[in-house]
Amino acid sequence: MITLQDLRKVYPTRSGEVVALDGISLEIPQGQIHGIVGQSGAGKSTLIRCLTALERPTTGSVIVDGAEVSALSEAMLRQARRRIGMVFQHVNLFEARTAAANIAYPLAIAGVPRAQRATRVQELLDLVGLGDRGDAYPAQLSGGQKQRVGIARALATEPAVLLCDEPTSALDSTTTRQILRLIRDVRDRLGITVVIITHETAVVREVCDAATLLADGRIVESGPLADVVTRPGSPLSQALVPVPDVGVGDQRALVQVSAGGAQTQIAHAMHAIATEPDAHVVAGAIETLGGVRVGRWHLDVADGDRVAVLGRLRAAGLAIEDDAA
């Protein structure tokens, strides 16, 4: 559905070139909710602008729904963009138009007859849970309701791809969960492919099927959550299933271990830790992500017993991630 091939974007400046994207290659299959995560300056905004062809890559290609958008003429690009819905952080609704009129706007631009527009708008209002709020203006809606209108507007032209740029960063935690559940529900009903640009791993943990971590314009790691969360030493896994902070005393030799898979594998790992006389749990966390149970623990292991203890834990199926001391 989405293919990025050796994508590179370079901006010339007075002081030299700035490389915003540096060799990005990525496949996102149809129907997947894929999170693109990274801190400010990682390249997320440039990536989403390349996906919509608001920016042309310096080299490489961007293929969305079978069309190489990075190579289309302006006329063809206008048609291709109708297959890409966009949800913004701050929604960007027309304040002087009702919710229904905001949703109808892209349909009018596309030349859809008025009667068909009205039917489609009501369908979308019902889909996002605002069936009775079509006549409300943005000032009369809550932040979550505005974002629901934004999602409905993005779906108006029946796109194949929904791009969400920090869709919940301006919302409180309860509303965030509601909007993320709505995005998953929309995907499940429509089979649409969803890309969520975010700096919050909590968003990835809540709704995504797969994730890609960007840093300095490059992919650090990428994959389905079921693979990422069980990958030893994975930065994404450590962010998605963090172990609580612990104080490190002078006598402690902390080691971080992990295990993932079925419930029985986690139970086996916990039993191995509990019955290991020379290692003690200081902190731990267990989550279910991507349909996989994953556990991560900080163990206090005496220096003199470290090699033997870690050997026994490895034999029990645990991954030794790193020393936390």
UniProtKB/TrEMBL annotation:
Domain of life of the native organism: Bacteria
Keyword set, alphabetical order: Amino-acid transport, ATP-binding, Cell membrane, Hydrolase, Membrane, Nucleotide-binding, Translocase, Transport
A GO CC annotation given for this chain: plasma membrane
Catalytic activity, EC: 3.6.3.-
Domain named ABC transporter: residues: 2-241
GO molecular function, one term: ATP hydrolysis activity
GO BP terms: amino acid transport
The keyword Translocase is assigned to this record: yes
Family note: Belongs to the ABC transporter superfamily.
Function: Part of the ABC transporter FtsEX involved in cellular division. Has ATPase activity.
Quaternary structure and partners: Homodimer. Forms a membrane-associated complex with FtsX.
Name used for this protein in its record: Methionine import ATP-binding protein MetN
